[in-house]
Amino acid sequence: MAPKRPRGAGAFPKPVESPAPSRPDPSELYAALDLGTNSCRMLIAQPKGNQFHVVDSFSKSVQLGAGLEKSGRLSRASMNRTISALRVCQQKIRRHEVTQMRLVATEACRRAHNAREFIRQVKRETGLTLEIIQPEEEARLAVISCAPLVSTKTEQLLVVDIGGGSTELVWIDLTAVPAFDRPRAIMRLHAGFHTKDSPFPAARVVDWISVPLGVATLRDQFSDVESDSARYALMSWYFEENLAEFAPYKDVQAREGFQIVGTSGTVTTVAASHLGLKRYDRTKVDGLRMTSDQIEKVISNYLELGPEGRRADPRIGLDRQALIMSGAAILQALLRCWPTDRLSVADRGLREGLLYAQMSADGVLEDAPF
Description:
Blueprint: E1 30-35, E2 39-48, E3 51-61, H1 68-71, H2 76-95, E4 100-105, H3 107-111, H4 115-126, E5 131-132, H5 135-145, E6 156-162, E7 167-173, H6 182-187, E8 204-211, H7 215-221, H8 228-241, E9 258-263, H9 265-275, H10 282-285, E10 289-291, H11 292-312, H12 318-321, H13 324-337, E11 342-346, H14 350-362
């Protein structure tokens, strides 16, 4: 005999609470857009404790600086590609109703003769207002993005941001700052490299430099050299020559208490190759510390692979393969100048720095250790 069906069974399914997170309050959201020589990248985030939570993001290779080295101008094709990407960013900003934002452009727009015309075209076609920032601010934003990765044992800090069109290096002395406060002292640099009248012990910027050579511009300067290994060696030595005016370069630095933090696609790609990742995982890369021997081993492997092998290597990726050796040349030059046991890998940069700076200025981040 069939079992008796309970009264009302199956008439209406029991409501299940949706696991989808509630939509964040637009008044709490901040947007940061970084338009570089190669890429257009944006983050939308809300403050969470002393960090932030990413709500939405966008990243696309636009090659805005393609051909800039020869012509001194942004090409029509490059501008069109970039504006298409910026339309996507504008849609995301509108969807999330973000009103607090900074949208910046860097080296390609600093150098291009028609940059102002391009900025006006962006405003006209997308409604977005791009701001061309100067090298010092770019360097400062890269530094504060790395604050959570600074060790409390660090006394001398070198932050390196390898971009598409330029490379920023900032040397910071933390010896006057109590160990527990060193990451926060880096964050306080959002107000400027030379802030006065601070009630807290300050991080002292010893020197900084913006070298007008990044992965794209350095590659373009040696594109006529046919030999892969010869081109790599020339790029590395040429980049080192451009560091001659950087003051700490001339002095021998103690390894104890010295930390280099590298932030760029080059550094994260080298880290992913070292870990043997088949699929990129930010949680495994950001904050990783690599020895100089491990970095040299990865770069040697890139040279052994050659152009075709690098193109087929999934850890490098199609977007990065054309630029990885110029980036590796810059990285090797830095390790030659400052022999160090370890380099801290930062999968963060200008966008994160822009968010931290906005949130810090508004006082919405908790004043707690990272």
